[in-house]
Amino acid sequence: MISLLRSIGLIFLHMFRKRETIQYPEEKVVLHPRWRGRIVLTRDPDGGERCVGCYLCAAACPVDCISLQATEDENGRRYPAFFRINFSRCIFCGYCEEACPTYAIQLTPDFEMGEYNRQNLVYEKEDLLIDSQGKYPGYNYYKVAGLAAGVKGKGEGANEEPPVDIRSLIP
Amino acid sequence: MVRIYIDQKPYDVKPGKNLLETCLTLGLDLPYFCWHPAMGSVGACRQCAVKVFKDENDRTGRLVMACMEGVRDNMYLSVNDPTAHDFRSQNIEWLMSNHPHDCAVCDEGGSCHLQDMTVMTGHAYRRYRYPKRTYQNQYLGPFLHHEMNRCIQCYRCVRFYKDYAGGKDLDVFAAHNHVYFGREKDGVLENEFSGNLAEVCPTGVFTDKTLREHYTRKWDMTMAPSICQHCSLGCNIIAGERYGALRQITNRFNGAVNGYFICDRGRYGYEFVNDPDRVKQPAVRAENDGGNLFESISSILAEGKMIGIGSPRASLEANFALRRLVGEEHFYQGIPENEARLMSKILSIQLSGHVYTPPLKETEYADVVLVLGEDPTNSAPRLALALRQAVRTKPLEDMAGSNIPLWHDAAVRELIQDDKGALFMAYPVHTKLDELAYGTLHAAPEDIARFGFAIAHYIDSNAPVPESMDAQALESAKHIADLLQKAERPLIVSGTTLFNEDIIQAAYQIGRALEKGEKKAGLSFVMPECNSAGLAMMQAPSLHAAMKAAEGGTFATAVILENDLYRRAARAEVDNFFRAFKNIIVLDHLQNDTTSKATVLIPAATFAEGEGTLVNNELRAQRFFQVFMPKNEHIRESWRWLDEFGQFRLGTMPGDLRELDNLVEELVGAMPQFKGVESAAPSADFRINGQRIPREPHRFSGRTAILANVAVSEPKPPQDTDSPLSFTMEGYRGMPPAPLTPFYWSPGWNSGQSVHKYQSEAGGPLRGGDPGVRLAGEGLFSVNGAPSHIPAAFKRQEQAMALVPLAHIFGSDELSVHSPSVEGRSPRPYIALGSRDAERLQAVEGDILQMRIAGQVFDLPLILKNELPEGLAGLPYNLPSMSGIAWPAQGVLTKTGL
After folding, report:
1. Per its UniProt record, what HAMAP family does this chain match (chain A) (predicted)?
2. A171 domain-assigned
């Protein structure tokens, strides 16, 4: 009997607490920067596409919902000719972001992707590529990679010696 | 067998091997870089360190390189010893100190031996803080991409390119930590086997440039075991597809045929499959335009008599399906009369029982080689690579007493220096193998044949002697005869390249003369195309017989199977032939002159889009499997089309239509000479634990996104009714049978180096035997040995020049020239003359000469080949712009007015 009255009392007190429910969509939810939502492709500090088409995100994807084709520009810089994510399959696990060696693919705190038509959940590169560096500002893969792809010449990268002169006789 | 103890466990192993091979054979994972099963050990990379102990009580031991230490009885060693393990890990750490941060943009990634070995040793974090060394790259031609930063200095590239394949233009430059592997300056890598560098290099220094155009990782490809279509040797290949386009060809190990290497024509000739000029739609070119295709075809097929023209580049099944459709008596081979005669002669020799046709791999062990009228480098490139190894056989045997094991590559090369076994080359012009030859003969085909007859005469005096040969030639023939007689495993290589029957007869005479009871001389014949032997075994009459038969006008329809007749005979002849028919049904992959004549054009599947069986030059029947289901549903195997035509023609019920296995069964039933073809590969209902064999690796990506742009609901994957392979990644993950191995992969071994897991011993045959079945040709050619006719010596004619066809690895093959990379390497049309003929015409190199051959006129620039005998001119064989010459040919040569 006493416990019953105690419960009724507690519930009564809850009426004066702060509300947890928010009035979405009028009121927006606060998400953390590392929240795993809509996937984007970012750009490096020079404005170039970060994605080099290495296929690691596609390989890491447990539902196989990423498909792309790598191609090259005249300088030998790799970029995806197409990049497709089927968000109707995506489980937002973030493995693609973990696998990405160039910080190109990133998950963003945005979940507002609902569609009436499932076909509209297929995102192409135009839908994915954003004009920002995302969570990792300052990183430019081609500055630290060994090959020359129009970003820097051979031996001009971070922590690189100038190219070897193979005709030199100096020991 | 000797007993060794590895980490205290006893193993019985084969003596004479090194520890690395032995460990790999036993299934132990021991990292290595510089060792290669086909090239032996040099101990350059210091990666395969193991610990060897004095005896069972020794606890200290010493580090040795496993590849440089032979197996001894009662040997104690440790692979897992902490010191050895740390040594290997630190070695990798040093190699990685200069290796660039490139994997994401490196084409090797995912099938990289360096990646695999790094993971295997456990090295994960870079401790070295200093700058990385860099190099400038070189342009190496249309086949290979160079990225020298990635090099780990294992020396495999130069060992393959220079020592194994005889290349001259790749070398190692500079010194100490600056060594550089490349050419002296930018330029096209000349060797015909350069593409193998992409597989030989353990990392991404040399990568496939055509793959780069449409780059796909190994794990993303749908792959199937296939057979190369670009010459008669039938090298085994793995073909990979992605997004409906063929992406890459890699070598598929076959211990009896190609081993670890294929030629560049085979590796880069695949792009005809992706050609925009493919025949894509079945089309009826008829008066009643707009008519239903089905009805038009059925009315055409039901009407009148049919003639069928087969093809040496179509599979056995396709040729047989055509033969069944048109009837045995109306089936023709689709090759010129002369070629058909040569082929039947070669078959009768091979099946005569007097000679032995060695598998390609065995030709590497011949101790004396005589090449009569062939240029293997251009007509059967992989054979030339084998002959390069054969010249080392004799010196290797001679050093048997020296106590140096054969795998000890550097020491062996040091010991034998420039010693070479005897190789004789007889061909009208210089060949690349001449540099290895003990003797060469540059003569007209007739004189090469006479030379052969002379050799036969000196071996067996009962054989006739050619008359009026000059003394010097006789002397050298006698010398060769002498060497051939003394040889343990003599080999004679001949073939159809020069279109001369007497040369083949001469080769046979020599083989016959060398026959001693059970011991038979090896005779290897080069044939024109990938299924020439299979077509010839059907024993149908030639194209010219078909032309004769059509003259009467009794046939309403001609069915032409994967064959451009304008490459087989003179244009006027073929035009005339086509005029005899009301309807011409052509099945082919690519648009060509013949397809433009077709009234019904049917798109046929290439080797990548269909299954079939080919018979190679040693009568080995090998199955190639469909790699992918083409997006275009009209592209289907020729045999399937022809079989379905049977519904209209023969009244076959749709339920009785044949699948591949039934067709093969029927083929063997109808032609017992093909007995054995049915066991070339497991049948379509073969399963392991009830599972199919997946064409896709388990890491295949994008399954739910590849077609999502078309429709977000994934379609059902295509079903394969003709083979035990599946088009998906689901299925049996263990070791498939050798003929069904779609790719090489083993846990921890992502690169092609994992092939040793598929072999019964490292470098040995595949588990369960090397694939392919040698046909015995039952019931064929019981009578043989045409009476030998010795031709008269070649004489210069006053009016006309005798012409010899000069084969070219890049250019002479019909399909591979459609690859842009191969096309870029093929020669422009030319005419080759000796210096005397050039003088008489007062022409110098580069002058345009006019050649008139049977009504055709060619304006060709002159190339001087001084070794060509007077009165003989060389023309590149079957270049796209120079086809339709009936060989052997003659022509009138004039200098055009300037």
Report:
1. NDH1_NuoI
2. no
